[in-house]
Write a structure and sequence with these properties.
Number of strands: 24
Helix content: 25-40%
Largest sheet: 12 strands, mixed
Distance between the termini: 13 Å
């Protein structure tokens, strides 16, 4: 059996100008990064302003196993199926982070015969967007510490500084550090740390910006600390925002690539859904909606994380109204939620599957919480038994949801035709989408609403630090922001080992901060960390390069 990278290396991609031509984009509009990828200037989107939007299709998932359930693979296969059926289709996906690539999950460009290419480029440095975001973030950190070193004219309270540095790598040793230990010439000593780039507020606001002016406005509003009178100190106050925006001037243009079957795909931006809002850029989504009748996008992890934030943060900020939502489920994950250990998921167990269905039920409820009807895609694995497929089929019927068996990993677009037909039927209706809570609700009530509606919690326990921080955020005038709850991805609750559909629980919010540039309030639930660590055997240990430059081991 070929690996994902071997399948991708066998692909003969079209020249990217030919992929762009299918969308109505001319060669003169493209900024080429070789023959198989290009950036599209924002002026092209301006020209499309009066064109009607396509029917936006979101792909989300149930609570995943550590390796994921093929959400991106299903999104790509669905788009390929629509493309095969002669429909005007375009993907809008996130860029992978090097953290998971070298850590647990491997690559994030799809899998099997449902991938975006060039797979190795996309998974590694691609067009440099992540590096630009990392640099812009760290430029602000450098200017902040330099300002303090040079006399601290803004009277910054160094104990209030919340702005860390970032890198696109899993590195637990950098979570908490002390900087400035080299004496007076090397900066003021203080406690700090690193987050992963995907958790950076610059990544979040980058993905929520509508154009370059909006990008710079959002950067200006980033709060790094308070002064000694309690007033926020921003990137604009530090005179850093202009240079930061310049650093992102090319990155803000979306990247156009293609699938193995030559379906156009924008791959742009990459916040994690467990510690950020988990969606690709608004700009890329708008491009896809203007250029295709059926734009397909995805949101990270389960519907309690990426989809909830897609609905209540991204759609609110950009005025988006999805028409159809696909919930990806796998038999192996449902067996895990039914109590089967990870090592035994390949063994047929219809009883455990039936027990684990309650997790799928909750994710379908989450879609209904915003006025839409879910479509279940059962992502097929070779270990699925006919008895398990029949059990899952009967359970979906009992839940009253439309479902389709998706075999896009093995068959590409051909394996997604049944799913595409259900999606097309759903797209005949006008969108009935609505956000789950109003702007004027208090921050605590917003957090409680998400916990109850999307996690199934009884309520929320706010620790003293969180109470103090939320009160301060509201007093500073940010109480109308939506909330972005940072929570573990392996459970609907904030307990990473509580599988299935946990009941009779509260989530615990230990802290909160305002991301004024991104336009949301982050609440930290449970023990979630914003800098992951590597596993005992990282994926990086299996990656290498042949003498001819060909990469192996990248998923």
């Amino acid at each position: 059996m070929l690996s994902d990278v071997e399948i991708a290396q066998q692909c003969k991609p079209k020249h990217i100008r030919d992929v762009a031509a299918e969308l109505g984009i001319t060669e003169d509009d493209l900024i080429f990064y070789g023959k198989d990828k290009a950036k599209v200037p924002l002026e092209v989107l301006d020209r499309l302003a009066d064109k009607p939007d396509g029917k936006l299709i979101l792909v989300t998932a149930i609570t995943p196993t550590p390796a994921g359930e093929g959400k991106t693979t299903t999104a790509i296969g669905l788009a390929d199926a629509l493309h095969r059926m002669g429909k005007s289709t375009c993907l809008a996906l996130r860029e992978p982070s090097l953290g998971p690539c070298f850590g647990v999950k491997g690559g994030a460009a799809g899998g099997g015969y449902a991938q975006v290419v060039p797979m190795t480029d996309i998974n590694l440095h691609f067009t440099g967007d992540f590096h630009a975001i990392t640099t812009a973030h760290n430029l602000l950190a450098a200017m902040l510490d330099n300002h303090i070193h040079q006399g601290n004219e803004l009277n910054i309270d160094i104990h209030s500084i919340t702005w860390k540095r970032v890198m696109d790598m899993n590195e637990r040793a950098l979570r908490d550090i002390v900087i400035g230990l080299g004496g007076k010439a090397n900066g003021i000593p203080r406690q700090s740390g690193f987050d992963i780039t995907t958790a950076s507020e610059i990544m979040a606001l980058f993905c929520l910006s509508s154009n370059r002016a909006d990008l710079e406005r959002r950067i200006e509003n980033v709060i790094v600390a308070l002064d000694k009178s309690g007033k926020p100190v921003t990137a604009k106050d530090l005179q850093a925002s202009g240079a930061m925006a310049v650093t992102l001037k090319d990155a803000i243009m979306p990247n156009l690539v293609q699938t193995l079957e030559h379906t156009p795909a924008f791959v742009h931006g990459g916040p994690f859904a467990n510690i950020a809002h988990g969606c690709n850029s608004v700009i890329a989504t708008r491009f896809a909606m203007k250029l295709a009748d059926y734009p397909v996008t995805e949101a990270g992890f389960g519907s309690d994380l990426g989809a909830e934030k897609f609905f209540n943060i991204k759609c609110r900020a950009a005025g988006l109204k999805p028409t159809a939502v696909v919930v990806v489920a796998t038999i192996r994950a449902l067996k895990m939620h039914g109590g089967v250990p990870l090592a035994d998921l390949g063994t047929s167990n219809p009883a455990a599957l039936e027990k684990g269905i309650e997790n799928l039920e909750k994710h379908c409820e989450n879609v209904r919480n915003v006025g839409l009807e879910p479509i279940v895609a059962i992502n097929k694995f070779p270990t699925d038994s006919p008895e398990e497929v029949e059990t899952l089929s009967n359970c979906c019927k009992n839940m009253g949801v439309q479902w389709a068996l998706s075999d896009v990993w093995a068959k590409g677009g051909e394996g997604g035709i049944e799913l595409a037909e259900l999606v097309l039927e759903a797209c005949k209706q006008e969108s009935t989408f609505h956000v789950a809570y109003p702007d004027d609700m208090s921050i605590k009530d917003k957090i409680t609403t998400v916990a109850q509606k999307f996690y199934g919690a009884d309520g929320v326990t706010f620790l003293p630090a969180a109470n103090t921080q939320i009160k301060q955020i509201e007093e500073l005038g940010f109480g109308n922001f939506p909330v972005c709850i940072a929570k573990c991805q392996t459970s609907l609750s904030d307990d990473p080992k509580a599988f299935g559909r946990p009941r009779n629980f509260n989530i615990t919010v230990r802290g909160a901060k305002v991301s004024a540039g991104a336009g949301f309030v982050v609440a930290y639930a449970g023990d979630i960390m914003t800098m992951p660590g590597l596993p005992k055997v990282p994926a990086a240990a299996k990656i290498g390069m042949k003498p001819n430059g060909e990469i192996y081991g990248l998923f």
